[in-house]
Each structure stands twice: as structure tokens, then as C-alpha cells.
């Protein structure tokens, strides 16, 4: 059976054509060397994802500043000396007419205390909530430091392009630095980078325009946002839409919108996505909870999205797009559980993260994924990969 929607090509505003509507969204590999460089494990892993059939494959978090890490084993791209290893990674990840985009990020105040004793942020506002003890209080960036960080993003994008990556994605979701600037709850600045939403998005627009100027009009640039970051006291629905419209007007090539779970949404994901997709003439990729072909086809057919983002299933099913396109796909839902609903809810992020990291490490080592439902095995794998820090919170929530 030929699924007409997911199999269609799509052309981005920059003129690059994508072979189908599948996007393997970012999944942190946490496999970097001690010097935060890629190795042969990345080459093998990304070759498998490229062979697997996705039109676009987006890398896990790549840090633009080695003094601000988000997770153990993060890649850092901040100088040309990493080019030889990046070139091999890009060569393997772009076979099979695959677009390979490097996700660029800075954690800001969300750099765990095991990496940053004094993280930086738009304003000196500490993280609150259940994970607050995992993070030190940040200091506010100076105006000059903000401009330096903009240039770090630009430099990383230029290096990625030199290495053969075919695009980049700016991570503006999940409480990381770009998102911190966008939210008035985290950004209390009174200069050109704070106050109105127009000022609060300046950090993002400066980064985008810097990359566009340095990398040219035909280099795809994407932005990741999340509906879960919308907050009536910090980053409202209207402001979220204003950012999308501004980036579209500037020429962004794709916007990924992450949500809770398209198939079982608690926040009206489909309706919000449909409105956003009609708001701008820029391809919108939806990510979050896609497991069934019918839901993917519905999202495209209803014009909720132009592209379908898939993450967790591709940690153990690297050829999921090919399986769907060749009518061989059987949905496999993996309900990892500790045996306690309370613990499952409290530890959900750690459980899923540890499981995904274990499976992609196995694939990178040339092994088969290990399918199981015991969440305790997942957390044990996290400890084996990273020590006890593998179970530490990596985000504010």
C-alpha cells in the first residue's frame, strides 16, 4: 500500500527538496568522547537512521559552548579541529538522499550542577519546582556575552555546513536558553533583549539572521518549539504565535512543534497544530506520540502538519519510515513500568531517556535493540552508561 501523504516529497522555502514527510527528531546520543567529539559510534548509528528512510534526520543536542553542557556525553562543536570527525559523521548520515541537520543548543540556566557551578541565563532567576536541586542558581548574561553567544551559534552552524551537514535546527523548546529569553518568567531584562516579546525574541532572531548570512540562502535552518512551554504568565499562546510568524517572515525553512501526544493529547494538540499550520506558509513538523499510520495520515490530511516527527520508536526501530512506506509496519507500543503508577509518573522522563540511550548505544555498537517492559532495567542501563549521574534530572521539569 502506498501512503500518499507520508510518501510525498516536499520543497522547503530555501529550495531544498525532502524525499518524504518523515523527520527523525532529536534524540540525545550521550556517546561523545571525553573531549566532547563524535566517534565511530555516531557514524554507525546515523548510517542506520539514514538507511532507515527518513527524509530528515535531526541530531541530538549539540552544544555551542563547552562550558555549558546539558547532558553527559554531549557533542560540542566550537572549532574547526573537530571537522574531520564531523565529516565522517555527515558522510554516513546523508546517504540514501537523507537530509542531516545538526541541532544547536545552549542550556542556559538548565545546565545541571554536575557541569556548571554558575550557569548563565537571561536573568539571575533560579529554577524552581521538583528538580530545582539539580541546578545551581544562574547569573545574568551581560549584553556583550549575549552577542558572543549569538556568534557561537553562528560559528557552530558554519562548521556543520563545512562538514557536510545539510542543515541546522535551533533548539527553542523545553526551557533551554533560547526559550529562556522568550519567556518573561525567566527573562526580566530591561535592555534590548527583554521586556516586550519583540525584544525577548531578539536573541533568537539574531542567531537566525547570523546563520542565514554566514551559510547562505539555500542552507536549511529550522526551529524547534514546544506547546508545553506555553505559559500564561511567561510565554503566552499569542506570543508563541508571534514568534512563529516572525520567524516565517524572516525565512525560516521549517518549524518543529513538539507536543504531549498527538494520538492521546491532553492539551488539544491537533487543534492547536492545525491553527499554527494555517498561520504561516512554512512547513510545520509535528512531533510527539505518533505511533500509528492512521494518525500520521490524519495529521497530514487535516493539514495539522506538513511533516511527521518521530523520536522514541526510532530508538529501537531505525527503519520505521521504510517499514511504513513498504507496508510492513506493525505499531509497537512499549509501556515501560516499575510496577508502580506513582513511580512511573514521577520517573517517566528518566525511564524513557535511559531506555532510548541504551537502545541507540546498542545499535551504534552493531547490536540489536533489546525490547523489554521492566523500567528498572532501563534505569540500570542508565547507570551502566553514565554512572549515577545518568539518573540525574537534565531539565527543570
Radius of gyration: 20 Å
CATH homology-level superfamily: Aldolase class I
Task: Give the N-to-C terminal Cα separation.
Answer: 41 Å
- Largest beta sheet, briefly? 8 strands, parallel, barrel
- By DSSP, the count of extended strands is 14
Briefly, what CATH class? Answer: Alpha Beta
Low-confidence stretches: none
The CATH architecture can be named as Alpha-Beta Barrel
The count of helical stretches stands at 13
Q: How many structurally independent domains? A: 1
Overall geometry: globular
What is the average per-residue confidence, as pLDDT, rounded to a whole number? 94
Here the CATH topology equals TIM Barrel
How much of the polypeptide forms β-strand, as a percent range? 5-15%
Characterise the protein shown here.
The protein has 397 residues and is of the alpha/beta class. It has one domain (10-328): TIM Barrel, CATH 3.20.20.70. The chain contains 13 helices and 14 strands. The chain has helices at residues 40-51, 83-93, 143-163, 177-182, 197-200, 202-215, 237-250, 269-279, 293-301, 320-325, 341-346, 348-364, 375-386, and strands at 10-11, 17-18, 22-24, 56-58, 62-63, 75-76, 99-105, 120-121, 139-140, 167-171, 221-226, 254-258, 284-287, 307-310. An eight-stranded parallel β-barrel has the order 3-4-7-10-11-12-13-14, surrounded by five helices. Strand 11, helix 7 (237-250) and strand 12 (254-258) form a beta-alpha-beta unit. Helix 1 packs parallel to helix 2, helix 2 packs across helix 3 and helix 12 (348-364) crosses helix 13. It is globular, with a radius of gyration of 20 Å. The protein starts with 9 loop residues before the first strand and ends in an 11-residue tail after the last helix. The relative contact order is 0.14. The model has no long low-confidence stretch (mean pLDDT 94).
Amino acid at each position: 500500500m502506498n501512503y500518499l501523504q507520508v510518501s510525498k516529497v516536499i520543497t522547503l522555502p530555501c529550495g531544498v527538496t525532502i524525499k518524504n514527510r518523515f523527520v527523525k527528531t532529536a534524540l540525545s546520543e550521550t556517546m561523545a568522547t571525553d573531549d566532547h567529539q563524535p566517534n565511530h559510534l555516531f557514524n554507525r548509528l546515523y548510517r542506520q537512521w539514514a538507511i532507515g528512510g527518513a527524509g530528515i534526520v535531526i541530531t541530538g543536542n549539540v552544544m555551542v559552548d563547552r562550558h555549558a553542557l546539558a547532558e553527559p556525553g554531549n557533542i560540542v562543536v566550537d572549532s574547526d579541529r573537530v571537522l574531520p570527525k564531523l565529516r565522517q559523521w555527515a558522510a554516513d548520515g546523508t546517504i540514501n538522499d537523507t537530509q542531516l541537520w545538526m541541532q544547536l543548543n545552549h542550556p542556559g540556566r538548565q545546565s545541571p550542577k554536575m557541569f556548571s557551578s554558575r550557569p548563565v541565563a537571561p536573568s539571575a532567576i533560579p529554577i524552581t519546582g521538583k528538580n530545582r536541586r539539580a541546578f545551581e542558581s544562574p547569573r545574568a548574561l551581560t549584553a556583550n556575552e549575549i552577542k558572543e553567544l549569538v556568534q557561537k551559534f553562528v560559528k557552530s552552524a558554519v562548521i556543520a555546513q563545512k562538514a557536510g551537514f545539510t542543515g541546522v535546527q535551533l533548539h527553542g523548546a523545553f526551557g533551554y536558553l533560547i526559550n529562556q529569553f522568550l519567556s518573561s518568567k525567566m527573562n526580566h531584562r530591561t535592555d534590548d533583549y527583554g521586556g516586550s516579546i519583540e525584544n525577548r525574541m531578539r536573541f533568537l532572531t539574531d542567531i537566525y539572521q547570523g546563520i542565514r548570512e554566514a551559510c547562505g540562502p539555500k542552507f536549511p535552518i529550522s526551529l524547534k518549539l514546544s506547546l508545553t512551554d506555553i505559559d500564561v504568565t511567561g510565554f503566552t499562546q499569542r506570543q508563541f504565535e508571534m514568534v512563529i510568524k516572525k520567524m516565517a517572515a524572516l525565512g525560516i525553512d521549517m518549524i518543529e512543534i513538539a507536543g504531549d501526544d498527538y494520538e492521546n493529547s491532553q492539551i488539544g494538540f491537533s487543534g492547536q497544530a492545525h491553527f499554527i499550520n494555517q498561520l504561516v506558509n512554512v512547513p510545520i513538523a509535528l512531533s510527539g506520540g505518533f505511533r500509528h499510520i492512521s494518525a500520521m495520515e490524519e495529521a497530514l490530511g487535516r493539514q495539522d502538519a506538513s511533516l511527521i516527527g518521530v523520536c522514541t520508536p526510532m530508538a529501537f526501530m531505525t527503519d520505521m519510515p521504510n517499514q511504513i512506506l513498504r507496508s510492513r509496519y506493525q505499531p509497537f507500543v512499549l509501556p515501560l513500568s516499575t510496577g508502580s503508577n506513582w513511580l512511573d509518573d514521577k520517573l517517566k522522563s528518566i525511564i524513557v531517556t535511559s531506555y532510548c540511550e541504551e537502545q541507540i548505544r546498542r545499535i551504534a555498537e552493531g547490536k540489536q535493540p533489546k525490547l523489554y517492559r521492566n523500567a528498572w532495567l532501563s534505569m540500570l542501563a542508565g547507570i551502566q552508561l553514565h554512572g549515577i549521574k545518568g539518573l540525574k534530572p537534565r531539565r527543570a521539569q
